[in-house]
Design goal:
- The protein folds into two domains: 1-31; 37-197, Glucose Oxidase, domain 1.
- 24% of the residues lie in helices and 25% in strands.
- It contains four helices and nine strands.
- The strands form two sheets. The protein has a seven-stranded mixed beta barrel.
């Protein structure tokens, strides 16, 4: 019996080490199973906030894995647009500021409903894309692979995931300035640019 317990312990320890090496976790959140792979960025998309100066950085987002459409450069060429705070901020119901969203990028917080539902609602409001930020305001590394909620809904706009710390600091600065939208250049494909050469926010460590 003791030998069996030791064997089980050794197997579990080995699996934990493997997961740690590849930095893979499994999370059940917002009705969606996701996996976190922090150091992948080849398929990620970036956007740049051009004002105010305190937020003038290039932000990395991870495209949804199994819903929405890709950030195709022909359909979504990099250009000036607006990142608009959705009201209510979790984007789980038709927004009060739907007119403001038309033709712009919706900015919502994670929680209360699935990633897919947020995307569908933003699309219905006229948004051309959506950025969903994590509700963990201290995290600056977990880039989540968002997948659908296995419902019958389908989305026809692209969706990207932004780490919680960046989302929180953007929200905070917007509240301080009493604004609900930011000028951005979106999307930027930085696939062949080394990560250390990208002007990421100073609070991002990777």
């Amino acid at each position: 019996m003791i030998l069996i317990r030791k064997a089980v312990f050794m197997v579990n320890t080995f699996l934990l080490c493997v997961l740690s090496i590849f930095n893979i976790y499994f999370i059940n959140g917002d009705m969606t199973i996701v996996d976190v792979k922090e150091f992948e960025y080849g398929g990620d998309i970036f956007f740049e906030i051009t004002h105010p100066p305190e937020l003038q950085y290039t932000y990395r987002i991870r495209p949804a894995k199994s819903f929405g459409i890709p950030f195709d450069k022909e359909k979504f060429p990099a250009k000036q647009t607006k990142l608009v705070l959705v009201d209510p901020q979790h984007g789980c119901e038709m927004p009060k500021n739907a007119k403001q969203l038309r033709g712009n990028v919706a900015f919502v917080k994670r929680g209360f409903c699935s990633f897919l539902k947020k995307t569908v609602i933003s699309e219905m409001s006229g948004a051309k894309a959506i950025v969903i930020t994590d509700n963990n305001i201290y995290d600056d590394t977990a880039y989540i692979h968002m997948i659908d909620d296995e419902s019958d809904m389908s989305a026809n706009i692209p969706a990207g995931f932004l780490v919680g710390k960046s989302g929180h600091l953007i929200h905070t600065k917007m509240s301080e300035l009493m604004i609900t939208e930011l000028p951005i250049v979106f999307p930027l494909n930085m696939t062949y640019v080394p990560l250390h050469e990208i002007k990421q926010p100073p609070w991002i460590t990777i």
